[in-house]
Amino acid sequence: MAAADTPSARTLRRHDLCSRGIRLARKMRSDVADLLDIYVERQGLDASVSVAAVEGVPAAAAEHWSEQTGTQRLLDNLAAYRAFRALLAQMLEEQREQLGDADAALGRALAAVLLQVSAFAYHLEELLELESRGPPGDDGDGPPAPPRLSLFEQKLRGLGVLRELAQWAVRSVRDLRQLARPSPGPSSAPGMAEGQ
Amino acid sequence: MRKNPSLRCLLALAILCLTSLVHSQEIGSPGDPQNLKCVTHNLRKMVCTWDVSSRRRHGQTDFCYTTNAHPLTECFKTKEKRVEIPVPESSTTIKITTNSISGTPFATREFEIRKKDISFIPLAPHILSLTPDFPTSTLTLKWSDNGSIFPYGLDAFWQIEILRKETMEKVTQVTYYSKLTHEDIILSWNWTSDMPLECTSHYVKIRCFINITQFVGHKDWSDWSPVEVSPGKDTEPHGSGVFPQDTVVAVGSDVTICCVHEEGQQIKRMTYGPEVYPLIRLSSRSSAIRVLNASASDTSGTNVVCSLSEDGMDGTVLFVGYTPDIPQNLSCETSNFELIKCTWKPGRPSGLYGKRGTKYSLFERISGKNVSCEVNEMNKERVCGFPVLGDQKTYNFLLGVSNPIGQTEASLLVDISQRVHPKTPEKLTVSGNSSTSVHLRWFINGSFTEIRLLCQIEISNGHSEQKLHNVSMPGGKSSTYTAQLNTLHPYTKYWFRVRCSAADHFWRWSDWSRIEEHTTLEAPPARGPDIWRERSPSGKSLKIFWKPLSLSEANGKIVSHEVSCYLLEKPLEYKEVTEPSNSTEIKLGRNDCVVSVIAKNHAGSSPPSRITTVELPSDNVKTDRAVAMGNGIYISWNSYPNMTCGYIVKWCHSSGSEPCSVDWQKFPSNTTDAVIKSALFRPGVRYNFSLYGCKSSGYQLLKNITGYTKELPPKRAPNFTVEETSSDSILVKWEDMPIEDCQGFLEGYRLSFAKGEKDALKPRLLESGNPELKVKNITDLTKKSLKILDLQGKTSYQLDLQAYTAGGLSPPNSLYVVTKEDSVGLIIAVLIPVAVVVLLGVVASIFCYRKREWIKETFYPEIPNPENSKALQFQKNICEGNKTLKTLEMNPCTPNSVEVVETRSAAPKIEDTEMMSPAADTVVPEDGSDSETENHVVVSYCPPIIEEEISNPPMDESVGSSQVVYIDIQSMYQPQIKPEEESEIDLVTTAGYKPQMQLPISALKIESCSPAEEESDKTAGYRPQANTNAWNMDTPDSPGSVESNNENASFGSPCSINSRQFLLPPKDDEDSPKPSNIGWSFTHFFQNKPND
């Protein structure tokens, strides 16, 4: 245990977690891209349709991304993936309600991505714990329940959620790369240090 | 007039007006009240109105009326020209007095109003409420019928008009009927719009007509009620959306979908699925599309997208599906008397899923119990469970089916005790400690206490067919059931499985249980083996054979056979022979005994099989032929009455070098024929059968029989030789064939012969179709030779010999024989020519002798005549230039001319390029038109002689050359040329030959031995269109060289451009000189081939 607490061990552990996280995010990006194709086809949507920002869906774009601290990055990621977890669960429920057993392939793909999002959120929590920061409390409900949407709005919101999730997967890879980068000094990354 | 109804109506109206005037007793004077009209709305009171003709101002009006029922006149004053008075029973007299402002009456008028003059017009109905139901696009209208003011039972007609859009376009008008009940009833009417109510405002108004038959006056529709509005979303300040929202419609429907947007926005387009539809403008903020005959949508519905300006977008999802189909094959059964399982097929899919999917419910009419069915939409068969209710046996099920578009149902009445489908039997076990019986146990989940079960046990072993054994037993509650199976065969592996059903009312078998395997125990062999015996040729030993028992007879694994020999109950010999041997030999000497054989297995011994060794003598034993029959051999024999214990047919199988194995078959004494079959029988193999008769004293050989299961053609032909040959006959002899080669009963030989030389390439005699082929058929098998007669002398004959059986001909054996020469003919053929020659010689001698003087004068004169001498003719012909006498021709070497053209310095480069390029060949002019710019030099050359071999000139050397050599190769063949033609020929050759190459003039040293004479057309035809480089580089034996060699013919040149040697002399020019050079090279070898 003593060895595990040394800075070098923590660095190694963080590096390992970041590497695994990057792999997870890449896989998730690939699966979400496939899911987007299936989703657009099965929901009869135009793939080029532009969807306005959906309420409750966290945006991957960040204005001062390069200035963010490591902990801030992790917290942003965690918040986003917790939101996605709730949104995808809702999508899955709506899918079952609307289509029943008729489109099992889409349901399976959605469930698979939901599982990956949950796993990735758990992974982020581990990273935050490593930084002695601890993940923020999860109320479990995610964003407040949106008003009852029409089916068409549900379809568009689903499209928006998946597109943004794909963006987030890319951003997460970049965030984790940034975190995994060896710090110039003997201690952990400066970003991390700030976060602590 | 009859034909014009409008005219008739007008006439009726005019008569009515006139009547009204008469009845009003109008006395027309100015200022008088007139046009009195009375209208009742409720049949009790009526409102009477009138006009005053004068415009003069007047004060109050005195209004008095008297009815028949009440003779008292009632008067009152009124300022209006309208009074409400009771409706009279029959008529009323009205007196209206108009007063001046000061109160002085100035006009009085009396009217008599009869009942038929009164009009009945109900009051305009009042709409109580207009309620829109947006999801169903239904408007609900409510109003009161005001029935309390009318007598009971009147027919009321309500005309309702629906309008829509800002312009209030009429959509529909319907008439609603009701009956008045003398009470105020609130009536309600629903109308479903073909357009969502959100799309635009909808308006409703109503009026009524009460059909009171007792009322004799004029009846009319009431006024329209005030318009009631159901506002559309386009009237709301921020109302927007695409409507209807997430609606389900039936396939084939016409659907209107609208897009309501905010003020200032524009609809760019509306799409239904992938298609863009034309917009129908409803208002400034609403437009719609109309989808006709909608087809079934995808599982996720059809998207309707309204694209708005500024990248705005809104949409809805429309689900188009079918009403649920009537469930098919509804069937209910129970497997355990706890739950009734009903199954059905849904029929045509509705195309709607999830919460819009088809819902099923099972309603039992007798008990009134209802269950909702959870079904999987993806399964082809739907299942729904209903609990078994107490003592209820009969169930009347109603399967309700519904979806958002419609509903249907199916019903089924069942006695559940007759619909028992037990579950698969489980835990099947087989036990048994016997060779013939087993005990089976299995378990069935379910309560069958009230019925009997019928269970079927399938018994199978590897040998016989499957057997089914039915067992009926009382049912139990989740019980174990047992069954005993007897009459099984010992030492047999059995497979068992079980299924069950209701015994009394069979419905369905359960599925088979899993298979259980069991092998019964061994039992002693059922019988002794089938035995035979044979004495050795020496007669001192006896060989005993037995056949193995079949599995069903062995009852176990046979371990040994006990062989003993008894003579009058006294054992002489005893042997125990272990498996797998099926014969043994015992030494008996010349004794006879009774042989006994017992088969033994682990469970015991078989009964003994006995046979006597006594062989009764037989004489005159014949050998017959058997007849093949199918895959067996048919043999028959006469009946022998004294053969009391049957017959035995014995034969022997031989396979290769091994001694033949004895086999036999026993037949009862009444049998006289049999078909012997054996898996070991092979076609083309001769089998010898021996028929023994059985007597109490022993066995007697009756006859031998030979036969084949199938006769085949002989394997080969007999060997044959030529014994004797003469000039007209050949004697051939052949050998016997071994039986194994015959493969059947030999029927004869076939000898074919025809003239023919021994030639491997020639077809075989029998296949050649030779018309001279002769065939001799020898059916006498004892005959081993044949003399062929009537042959030609000194002629080669081919002889083919074949043997044949019923199976066909063998392959032939061939011989070639040459008959001997005919000596008489030869003598004649030699002597006659000799005699003729001798005779001619004698005649010639006599003639020469007699004419010897003339001959001498003619052929050998003492003084020869020069004119008759051929040898001296050249002196004459040489002056005429006769070309035929070449031997004495002495042509001097006449110089021919070669034109050497010196080109300008710029030209070689261009020509170099062109030379290198195949296309350049066509660029060079052939008519010599550019010769004006060239310096012509004539040099002498001798075509056939090349003093120096030209080395391959590199291309860059030729580039720098300033000279082009034109070689008139054709002219090399001209042996003579006339001096006067020289200039002309020179011109022609120069014009006709332009080799498209350059050679350094220094490399050319050519001598012309004789000037050539050439016809102009031949000269002009030469165009070597080849690359000099290729010529030089290729060796003659290279492929390219061979090709170029072939191409020489196309050049039309006798010279190789490379070697400048003669290649091909003109064929038509016999006199052209042969090339004198004899230098040998590969090029010569190929190019100067003789006769090429």
TrEMBL record, chain A:
Residues 177-196 are annotated as: Disordered. It comes from the Eukaryota. Pfam families: CNTF. GO terms for cellular component: axon; cytoplasm; extracellular space. It is found in: Cytoplasm. GO terms for biological process: astrocyte activation; ciliary neurotrophic factor-mediated signaling pathway; negative regulation of neuron apoptotic process; positive regulation of axon regeneration. Residues 180-196 have a biased composition (Low complexity). The keyword Ribonucleoprotein does not apply. InterPro entries: 4_helix_cytokine-like_core, Ciliary_neurotrophic_fac_CNTF. Keywords: Cytoplasm, Developmental protein, Differentiation, Growth factor, Neurogenesis. The keyword Cytoplasm applies. GO terms for molecular function: ciliary neurotrophic factor receptor binding; cytokine activity; growth factor activity. Belongs to the CNTF family. PANTHER family: CILIARY NEUROTROPHIC FACTOR (PTHR15196). CNTF is a survival factor for various neuronal cell types. Seems to prevent the degeneration of motor axons after axotomy. This is Ciliary neurotrophic factor. It comes from Cairina moschata (Muscovy duck).
UniProtKB/TrEMBL annotation, chain B:
This is Leukemia inhibitory factor receptor. Its main location: membrane. Residues 1-24 form the signal peptide. It is found in: Cell membrane. GO terms for cellular component: plasma membrane. Residues 1011-1092 are annotated as: Disordered. It comes from the Eukaryota. Keywords: Cell membrane, Disulfide bond, Glycoprotein, Membrane, Phosphoprotein, Receptor, Repeat, Signal, Transmembrane, Transmembrane helix. It is a single-pass type I membrane protein. Residues 424-523, 525-619, 714-823 form the Fibronectin type-III domain. Signal-transducing molecule. May have a common pathway with IL6ST. The soluble form inhibits the biological activity of LIF by blocking its binding to receptors on target cells. Belongs to the type I cytokine receptor family. Type 2 subfamily. The chain crosses the membrane at residues 824-849. Heterodimer composed of LIFR and IL6ST. The heterodimer formed by LIFR and IL6ST interacts with the complex formed by CNTF and CNTFR. GO terms for molecular function: cytokine receptor activity. The keyword Signal applies. Residues 1041-1061, 1078-1092 have a biased composition (Polar residues). It comes from Cairina moschata. CDD domains: FN3. InterPro entries: FN3_dom (IPR003961), FN3_sf (IPR036116), Hematopoietin_rcpt_Gp130_CS (IPR003529), Ig-like_fold (IPR013783), LIF-R-like_Ig-like (IPR048497), LIFR_D2 (IPR040817), LIFR_N (IPR040901), Type1_Cytokine_Rcpt_Type2 (IPR052672).
